[in-house]
Design goal:
- The complex is a heterodimer of chains A (about 325) and B (about 270).
- Chain A is an alpha/beta fold.
- Chain A is built from twelve helices and twelve strands.
- In chain A, the strands form two sheets. A seven-stranded mixed sheet of chain A has the order 2-1-3-4-6-5-10, sandwiched between helices.
- In chain A, helix 2 links the parallel strand 1 and strand 2.
- In chain A, helix 1 packs parallel to helix 7.
- The radius of gyration of chain A is 19 Å and the shape is globular.
- By secondary structure, chain B is of the alpha/beta class.
- Helix content of chain B is about 40%, strand content about 10%.
- Chain B contains nine helices and seven strands, in the order ααβααβαβββααβαβα.
- In chain B, the strands form two sheets. Chain B has a five-stranded parallel sheet, sandwiched between helices.
- Chain B is globular.
- Classes of the chains: A alpha/beta (about 325), B alpha/beta (about 270).
Chain lengths: ~325, ~270
């Protein structure tokens, strides 16, 4: 089991880049510890801006820094960054088109038992509705590294969504193609397709291998970039398979599944089941307990796929 | 002396142009534009290091209009300065114009899109921190409204400006005492703003924001302050220069009829001709 969290990888890449680029600036809202950015702060004290617990100011200051040529990386819990600062994100980052990278840490139900105030299950819905905002949700540490290496080279706004804990590897190493806006086919199959994002990708992959034991061949797509969405790979799956299940660590209301469903409905209608968290406050538990309770695991996904394929043949 | 006279004449002409733009477009926020225009005039025609021919000059001073609803006052000032053709002012708020009702950074000379109150101060703080980080000597100016002071984010920014000792930052409050629903003190009491900002660690300078010599000396004093940010608390008159608009909250974004337009122009010394 991998022990390196995606947020740690983000810090590592920023440290490597900051060595040669004084314009890289990290901003925190009393969040350097929870963002695993303390090593950056210690190594580059002149390239970190602490704003205290003030998320509106956090994003406003970042936009001002970007407007004078800096390359700001804002790291704050996703639940606050995408709610408390949302108007600054909309106006100061997206509308003014500033090169601000927003890193939502401990996203989804990472904070588990801390409750709904600390869950970010509406962030994809909110951020995806903002023009000029990209959303990237890497599935493992290798994707996180590839994503960061690409993002430091561009000057467009982006929302990066990562969880708190280390996640199991999807890839074995860095030897794979990764492009912002392009999905990755992790497993072939034409009976059905799992289209997953973030930490759900591993669960989708496990579900697909469980189904292989029953001779059901399910494709697995890893959509690390939610916006812009890779429509082509989704349409291809809709045309070539019989049913689609989307999986996300987010509310089922206006999230990733909704976006995939829109593409499918407009281009290649087929059955789509959205697996997500319910439109309510959640049971108390750590993230794994929450996922299991709501069936967001390999067994739950495999069962849903079988049901959907039966429905298709009914 | 000549400089003062020149700026006073300029203010008069800019006011007339504001009236013209608001009348023709049947849009804009005329009252606040007239209270803030003298400060904009001094900033762009005296205080700031800017070049209309090179609006993206690296070491230029930066200005953010946090009270973005007086966009027409900024557009008029920029057009007068030569950032874009004055004829374009006729397109203000019209179909497909880039002169949107709030500042738009697709217009040369405008740094950031504003319009939602309580944003500009943080932007300016970020710019000023960036200037210090890069050891650049540009200065940063932000103009806020007084009603805007009720936004909590303003005080987040004020705290940070002081924490980072941003003596390259001048925040200005257009203290005309009125907001859309009435006086600021009725809507949400702000006073005493001097004490509030001083307690946040600011060098506070009170000026008459409609008096050119007073504005000039305020900016001059601000330059002398080291180790902390400056707040120019600019006492102004909403609707300044137009008899029936002065100190009248209903002219926050009122629309003139022809008679009122003529009256306004008469008050300002005749029709627009430069």
């Amino acid at each position: 089991m991998n022990k390196i969290a995606n947020r740690t990888v983000i810090c590592d890449v920023l440290m490597k880049k900051a060595e040669h680029d004084q314009d890289i600036v990290v901003l925190t809202s009393d969040s350097r510890g929870s963002a695993s950015l303390a090593p950056f702060a210690n190594a580059y004290p002149k390239q970190i801006v602490e704003v205290g617990i003030a998320e509106q100011n956090l994003v406003g200051i970042a936009s001002g820094l970007a407007a004078v040529g800096k390359k700001p990386y804002v790291a704050s819990p996703a639940c606050f960054l995408t709610m408390r600062s949302i108007e600054q994100v909309k106006v100061d980052v997206a509308y003014s088109h500033t090169n601000v990278k927003l890193i939502g840490i401990s996203a989804g139900v990472s904070y588990g038992a801390l409750g709904m105030s600390h869950h970010s299950l509406q962030d994809i819905a909110v951020m995806s509705a903002i023009p000029n905002m990209r959303i990237v949700v890497p599935a493992d540490r290798f994707e996180t590294e590839k994503m960061m290496n690409l993002l430091v080279e561009d000057d467009e706004p982006c929302y990066i969504r990562v969880g708190r804990n280390p996640v199991e590897d999807i890839h074995e190493n860095l030897d794979f193609d990764f492009e912002i806006g392009k999905g990755i086919t992790l497993k072939e199959g034409n009976d059905g397709a799992f289209i997953a994002t973030g930490e759900m990708v591993k669960k989708a992959l496990d579900a697909a291998y469980l189904l292989e034991e029953e001779e059901i061949h399910v494709r697995v797509l890893n959509i690390h970039t939610i916006k812009p969405l890779d429509e082509e790979i989704i349409i291809k799956a809709a045309l070539e398979t019989k049913a689609i299940i989307t999986m996300e660590e987010h509310s089922g209301v206006n999230g990733f599944g909704t976006m995939v469903s829109k593409v499918v409905a407009e281009h290649a209608p087929c059955f789509v089941k959205v697996m997500a968290l319910p439109d309510s406050s959640l049971i108390t538990g750590n993230s794994q307990q929450v996922f299991d309770y709501y069936g967001l695991n390999a067994v739950g996904a495999a069962e849903q796929m079988k049901k959907l394929l039966v429905k298709k043949h009914a | 002396m000549n400089k003062i006279k020149e700026l006073e004449n300029k203010s008069k002409n800019l006011r007339k142009r504001i009236i013209d733009v608001c009348y023709k477009s049947k849009a804009g926020h005329v009252g606040g534009s007239l209270s803030g225009i003298d400060i904009l005039n001094v900033l762009y025609n005296h205080e700031m290091n800017i070049d209309a021919k090179n609006p993206n000059m690296e070491n230029r001073d930066r200005f953010i209009l946090s009270k973005g609803h007086i966009a027409e006052a900024l557009y008029v000032t920029l057009a007068d300065k030569g950032f874009f053709d004055k004829k374009e002012l006729d397109t203000f708020s019209s179909y497909q114009s880039r002169l949107i009702g709030h500042p738009n950074n697709k217009v040369p000379g405008i740094e950031m899109n504003t319009g939602s109150l309580g944003h500009g101060f943080s932007l300016a703080v970020g710019m000023a921190i960036g200037g210090k980080m890069g050891q650049k000597d540009f200065r940063v100016y932000v103009m806020m409204g007084d009603g805007e002071q009720a936004e909590g984010s303003i005080w987040e920014a004020a705290m940070a400006a002081s924490h980072y000792q941003l003596d390259n930052l001048v925040a200005i409050i257009d203290r005309n005492g009125l907001q859309i629903s009435g006086t600021t003190e009725e809507v949400m009491a702000l006073d005493n703003l001097r004490f509030k900002y001083e307690s946040f660690g600011f060098n506070v300078i009170e000026i008459d924001g409609n008096d050119i010599p007073s504005i000039l000396s305020g900016f001059k004093l601000a330059r002398k302050c080291k180790g902390k940010p400056t707040l120019l608390l600019a006492h102004t008159v909403k609707g300044k220069g137009v008899s029936f608009m002065e100190n009248n909250a209903s002219w926050h974004h009122g629309v003139m009829n022809e008679e009122q337009y003529q009256q306004a122009m008469d008050d300002l010394g005749g029709m627009c001709h430069e």
